[in-house]
Amino acid sequence: MNRAKPAVKRLGWAVLAAVAVVIQGGCTPAESLRGPAVEPARDSGQRTITVTAAETLGPCYRFWSVGNFNKPQSLLDPQAMRDYREAAPLVTELNLVYLLGGRYPGANEWFLGLDADGTPRTDFAGMIAQLRAALAAGYQVRIVLDNVPYGMSDPPQEHYYGNTAPPADERVWGLYVEAAVRAMVEAFGRETVARWPFRVGTEPDLKPAHWAGTEEQYFAHYDHTVAAVRRVLPEAVVGPGNIMNPGRRPDAQRIVRRWGLNIIDHAATGANACTGGAGAPMDVFSCSWYPRVGWSLDRFNEAMGAMRRRLDQYEPFRRVPIEVGEFSVLGDERGRHLYAGDTTEWSAGFYAALADRVYALDIRKLYEWDHATYGVMHPKGRVIEMLQEMAGGERLAIAVEGASDAQCGALACRRGDDLYVLVYHHRPGRAAGPAETVRLEVRDTRMTDGALWRLSRRLVDRGHGVWAYAFEADATAAGLTPLRGAGLYEGAVLRLYGEAGVPVFRANAAKYHALSQPLVEADNQPVPVADGRWTVTLEMPCHSARLLRLSPPAR
Fold this sequence. Notes:
By secondary structure, this protein is of the alpha/beta class. It has helices at 13-16, 19-24, 29-34, 78-87, 125-136, 170-188, 190-193, 215-232, 262-269, 298-312, 345-360, 379-390, 468-477, 493-497, 501-507, 509-515, and strands at residues 45-59, 66-69, 93-96, 111-114, 120-122, 140-144, 158-159, 162-163, 198-200, 238-240, 285-289, 322-327, 363-366, 372-373, 376-377, 394-402, 407-415, 418-426, 436-443, 452-460, 519-528, 533-540, 544-551. β17 and β18 (418-426) form a beta hairpin. α6 packs parallel to α8 (215-232) and α11 (345-360) runs parallel beside α12 (379-390).
């Protein structure tokens, strides 16, 4: 699944399965949007969360830094780039999909045919200009080697994401890829390009939308593509296209066989169509993961576990990192499509709880789509900002004891002299459940008797850091009703209210920006510590995230 343009998400599995259409039934637009509340579990509880500063778990890395960018020609359009920054201001790396053409007729046409000896004729000046624009804008880049140019397939097959037919001759495709990588090296230098990860296609097991060929044809395509990259850059990091979610899909109307995990078997022991040997290089493996409101986060563990288990069957792949090449909350609780994610406090608790699992499972990256609307941060975006404060630190051991079924936990790290604790309360359903009472204990041998540390605290919950309800009220006051089939608290204004919603949002953007700010509960407030520990009791509302920073006395 890919984005059609910045801030507007391209339809994915929800459209292909027609889930949203089936669910709508005969509801009026307002009824369709609202729907019944998801009843939460009514148990509340107390829990103890203990942070041990002496026990480190590894780095607090920036897993949110990559954004998907599937219209690379728009890198040359200043307005398109401003739009992108308004939708994903925290992204620092662009994953450039369809860089090699075959997606939009008339765009990225670097393949000019064949010479008499069968060598591809190419002109990559436009591609280099796009890459140069991305770098000049301050982004790092990741290269997705797709699609096959229209003129290279016989015949081309136009599907949802352009020409998804295999090349008529994989040898020609390999020479084309090799020429593209050589052009990159000539323009930017070997040292620079060798740092760019390369990916062979997008969701190859989504047929025919992304790959109209067979499983075996993709294996051959992968072999030739990897060999082409490695002929120029033997040290390059290369991996297959992100496969479809390998976890269960209990909402699916029928079972669809996905063969994405078989790429691992082929790369380990399969016959290489290019070299004639066994296996193929594979430095990273990834999938798409698109949850919706109401889904259990256990499904994230299932999907990641399916990949890890298959990789671990082969000794060379046991240390291959896993990434999520496409991620967004793609549906509300009734399955209606969310093009730019959820904009309520639910997204804050969800993302903080997901971050905990990302680190626990050692998932390298979650590729972003949107975390802001016209530059106004979503609650999820505010949580990413909290995580950015922690980035570069060393994660600390956490122990959680509690009886309720709430997903209420914490992430902690030490960065420099400061300690950070991100406490969250998430439940799958949207409806608010009871708060959790948390006794937080932070243990650090530097906390000597009589010392005064300094505490800063910020909170995102329903009443703080959320503008969605104010926008809803303003739109209603302006006489607007949600479009039929629009997702509940959709982040894309055009998808929620149509063109008429844009001036309402723009007119009130300053107000929404103010509402998007987390509540500052404390700012360098002195707090006493003793006996190597500090304790506090927190009331954690349902769907909330709270960042605490503890700083030792100045030396």
